[in-house]
Amino acid sequence: MDVVIVGSVALDSIETPSGAVERALGGSATYASIAASYFARAGVVGVVGGDFPHKHIATLRKRGVDLEGLEIIAGGKTFFWRGRYEADLNERTTLETQLNVFETFSPKMPASYRRCPFLLLGNIHPELQMHVLGQVERPRLVLCDTMNLWIDTALKPLRRLLRRVDILCVNDGEACQLSGKTSVTAAAEWLLKAGPRRVIVKRGSHGCSMFGRQSFFSIPACPVRRPADPTGAGDSFAGGFLGYLASCGRTDESALRQALVVGAVMASFCVEGFSVGSLLRLKRADVAARCRALHRAVQFEPIRLRN
Amino acid sequence: MDVVIVGSVALDSIETPSGAVERALGGSATYASIAASYFARAGVVGVVGGDFPHKHIATLRKRGVDLEGLEIIAGGKTFFWRGRYEADLNERTTLETQLNVFETFSPKMPASYRRCPFLLLGNIHPELQMHVLGQVERPRLVLCDTMNLWIDTALKPLRRLLRRVDILCVNDGEACQLSGKTSVTAAAEWLLKAGPRRVIVKRGSHGCSMFGRQSFFSIPACPVRRPADPTGAGDSFAGGFLGYLASCGRTDESALRQALVVGAVMASFCVEGFSVGSLLRLKRADVAARCRALHRAVQFEPIRLRN
Questions:
Q1: Conformation bin of residue B118: beta by default, left when phi > 0, alpha when psi is -120 to 50
Q2: Is A256 exposed, middle or buried (0-12, 13-18, 19+ CB in 10 A)?
């Protein structure tokens, strides 16, 4: 396996100004593995209940996502999330969360996943993320996501975890909350001292930035005329990021920058449809075209100031 | 005169998490003219009262800002604004506004300004902005700012004005409000149809984007570790933008992109101090260094996707 993704596989009911879906395929590991599957072999470590529709399994398999690490608890119910977005799609409201089988989830890595070089620790309890780290053999790169819930309720294990991951990937609000800083730049500096060698800060429709101890890289989001549903954008970003790194086999600054672009492109496709709809329909040429468009969008000639 | 700037010259009382100032030098034309003065001859069209401290006049003169267009009404009081920023400096609260001499302000262009090639219509009533346009002879480029107040109360004259300006410069919220769209991309498309040939959307600490009918350019904000006071950042941006264009004498896409970078750099200096403090202390080398840093911050190698 090139990329292993630990996270949620869920059913989502989502309402946005563009429409609504009921019990659609969702979850962080779902979005990330689909995005990664365009570039590398991706496997999922997660859990669903007996109610998880077989068509969703078929959808993931058809995309080439490996499901050996997906546990199915016949008598249980799948993690369910209901949320709503207002006109500003950067803000969302959680209306209902049913943890169900996720409540007692204990990630188990299949033997074939243990030597995977690229590992995505999706947004689950930091203790579980640490538990996963204990099951892999010297991964080349570990990317870690988290959320405000764990910053509030599990800060200590989260701090311990930060010392063991290569890259932390959070949004601007989470970066500030976790560091106690009010500017993203100060937050990133603080987080870099806490462990990871890169901090990726997602800025929703404004793009994303990657901070290193000696480096700063930032790109805009691909312009999307009619964003339909931002759910999973961050996970699609992370999956595209790791999938691209696995495909090129490098983790130097140049490759990380390219991976950030690929991640942003996958996120831009994700938000164009509800659930994983638009993420499933991609052609490699679509991805390449948006990577080129982002390259054009940031070009400028060196500036010479006159006296 | 290379750049003429119409807007407010004010006294600001500002409170942020980093500190506070009372009746400090402020106003859109103040920030914009100081920023522009680093690159070109800049003149101000505005009004102050007899209470306007002479030291502020001296400060502007020392920076080389031309004040022939600054009316001083001896018996009047200067425009006063009091505002507060919370931890998220992208959001601000107006606590007090005293229009004073600004209430009856009717911009008058001195004869020496009428043939200026670059004109900044700062954020004042759209009828006044139009009135200024009637006093200039075929400017090469007109940049127009506005705000939610005029979108709410003077939409019709604002719409008429849009047909007569080259570039509209607004923040993301204003772009959406003015167009009635919910995504910045859709808003920019709508605004481009309303008149201007470029729309600049400022995204606070997330950077800014420039939309054309066939072009899209976007840059991050320069990372600022300890932003002190964001007041005037957008005006410093606009002043730097036009000052740079005037200095290089071009208005093609390449020059506009460079000007956007220079504008973003001037805004980043502005937010590092209270009032115009940090904007006054710049050296050309400081500006050039941040332009180079922004160039490095957006570089990535073309992406080749493997099969």
A1: beta
A2: buried
Tell me the residues of chain B between 229 and 258 that have a Cβ less than 8 Å away from chain A. 244, 247-248, 254, 257-258
* 8 A C-beta contact, residue A26 and residue A275: yes
As beta bridge partners, residue B220 has: none
B223 → closest Cβ in A176, A216, A258: A216
- Interface pTM (ipTM) of the complex? 0.92
**Are residues B154 and B146 in contact, defined by beta-carbon separation less than 8 angstroms?**
no
Question: B303 and A297: CB-CB below 8 Å?
Answer: no
Question: Which residue is closest to B189 within chain A, CA to CA?
Answer: A225
Per-residue pLDDT reduced to its tens digit, A278-292: 999 899 999 999 999
Using the Cβ of A214 and the Cβ atoms of chain B, whether some distance falls under 8 Å is answered with no
Q: Residue A281, Cβ neighbours under 10 Å: how many?
A: 11
Using alpha carbons, select from B88, B269, B150 the residue that is nearest to residue A173.
B88
CA distance B158 to B126: 5
- Could you tell me the two tokens for A134? 């204990």
Which residues does B276 contact at the CB level (< 8 Å), separation at least 6? B24, B25, B26, B30, B31, B34, B59, B232, B270
At B213-264, the pLDDT tens digits run 999 999 999 999 899 999 999 999 999 999 999 999 999 999 999 999 999 9
Residues from chain B contacting residue A217 (CB–CB below 8 Å): 297-300
